[in-house]
Amino acid sequence: MSGHPRPTLASVAARAGVSASTASLAFADSPRVTPATRQRVLTAAEELGYPGPDPLAASLRRGRSGIVGAFVGERLRYAFRDPHAVVLMDGIAEVLGPHGVGLLLLAGDTSRPGLTQLARIPLDAAIFATCGLEDDPALELLRHRGVPVVGIDGPLSDDVVLVDIDDRGGTADLARYLFELGHRRVASVAMPLRLDGTRGPLGEDRRALNHYRDVRHRLAGAHEVFPRAPAYEAASNSVDEGEHAGRALLTGARRPTAILAQSDILAAGVLRAAAELGLRVPEDLSVAGFDGADLPWLHPAELTTVVQPTDEKGRLAAHAVVELLGGRTPENVRLPVSVRVGTTTGPAPDTVET
Questions:
Q1: How far apart are CA 217 and CA 223, in angstroms?
Q2: Which pTM does this prediction carry?
Q3: Which CATH number among 3.40.50.2300, 3.30.565.10, 3.20.20.110, 3.30.70.20 corresponds to the domain 167-307?
């Protein structure tokens, strides 16, 4: 262990020939300090091995931590594998970065820190980045702490600024497109209604639970056109789960001629299941997704999907955070979506009514 005393802000200031307050302003990149003086301070800090002021102490003085918590709806590894989630988080970071705000990613499943730990994490604001539940205990904790909250697609609450899209309308438009192609035996692959590991055919008891808004609205959109269409709930929003759901639906007694997946990632899994079963797409089976994600590994197939402005959603959520931290209350925002027809959908192979 070295016998040299640890460098301090005062020792850096003395070496640079300035006051401690001037050195502090130099580290804060204050315009009150000339570039030459700031460089002298930084050079002195480097020579002494001084890493800079304690960020926690600085945050306590400012009353701000410089951290925004981003709650991700599933395990972080799923979020990083989902192009939609990656683009969303990039949009958030693009806006918050120039404001000197960092993102702390918090998983939405059992790997999330407990409430006791969450209560100790210094947060200036929170974003439910990939949808949130109204009964999430973390939401009540944030309310109790007075932390402003922005929800992307949810949760729906008077004290949460909401940035969402027309999930129901977009899905209904896509379902109508399939109907016009002659499809009548249509099934849906739903994202998780809740993060409890449930997988399988979606019954009324399950639908009656409080569940994610985007899942609920996309199911309702499909139901507008195909009121008797079965739905299969995936345990997570992943390619593997889409494949599992696709295999279950395609090996059943009445194989659907089209499958509406609630995300492009799930649709990619359904396409994999169809290929393994020897089904041609779109001659034997039409497959459609939701998000408009960049999936270059599907080439040359181009997924028919509902395109949403994912990066804009992220940027608008981050702008809402900036407004909240500035003492203003931004309005809720709903963004439009559109159907993009690709090569994975085509006329129904038959017109048998269900």
A1: 10
A2: 0.80
A3: 3.40.50.2300
